[in-house]
Amino acid sequence: MVSFNRAVLAGNLTRDPELRMTQNGVPVCSFSIAVNRVSSKSEAADFFNVSAWRELGETVATYKKKGDPILIEGRLQYRTWQAQDGGKRSTVDVVADRVQFLSRGTNPQEQAEVEVSASASKVTAEAADSGGWDRAKQLQDQSDEAGLE
């Protein structure tokens, strides 16, 4: 049986990231992003809750704020819990393992980005040919070649 759980989202933060510590002292940053869904009839947005752990979460909380554009790579995670009223609740969240900080510039050719990975403990800045959207296109092309849609 084949399993594949990968999410790539590019949008804007809908609120300031919130950094907190688990009981074991592990930092986790929670934030949400709005992703525009454009169709020929109307425009709408989808909203996603995202969590980033450890150094990745600390970096997002330090450098990003409400309204900032960001590209998220990660996995979907299904959670359930018991609410205070006794009802069962569930949600699907994105757990980020890589983010790219996109600039607000209007010309993608002149944008600079910061790429942060959960496996990397330092932040590296580099000039981007197309403001981070190049990475999203690469991932889309890879999934198309693999027959995933």
CATH topology: OB fold (Dihydrolipoamide Acetyltransferase, E2P)
Strands across the major sheet, in which order? 1-3-4-6-5
CATH level 4 superfamily: Nucleic acid-binding proteins
The major beta sheet can be summarized as: 5 strands, mixed, barrel
Mean of pLDDT: 80
Explain what you see:
By secondary structure, the protein is of the alpha+beta class. It has a single domain, classed as OB fold (Dihydrolipoamide Acetyltransferase, E2P) (Beta Barrel). It is 15% helix and 48% strand. It has a five-stranded mixed beta barrel. The longest helix is centred in the last third of the chain and has 13 residues, at 133-145. Residues 106-112 and 120-133 have low confidence and may be disordered.
